[in-house]
Known about the structure:
alpha+beta; 5 strands; elongated
Amino acid sequence: MTYTWKILDIYADAGKITSVKYACSLSNGKDTIDTEGYWGFPDGEVTVPFEKVTEEMIVDWIVESSTVNNQNIIKSRLEEQLLSLKNKPVPAPWLPQVFTPEL
């Protein structure tokens, strides 16, 4: 499985990054799940000068901050959603039943 991260927006105050808007996708080669979110950095957490910050650094900070008990909450949620695609929904019993062949 492949994770792809993108930092969409950076919010800063007095040259210090306070939060970011990110996008992350997970692909297994067949299906892809996407999410967007905001991640805040408490005052003093980001100590790298603004002009030296890279997208990879921010992604690493998000991954590190969102990992609890060796499990990343963003990645694990994407994995759950990707696995749920295996379950095909069934029509509600009160709706007309339609046969749809899988191709």
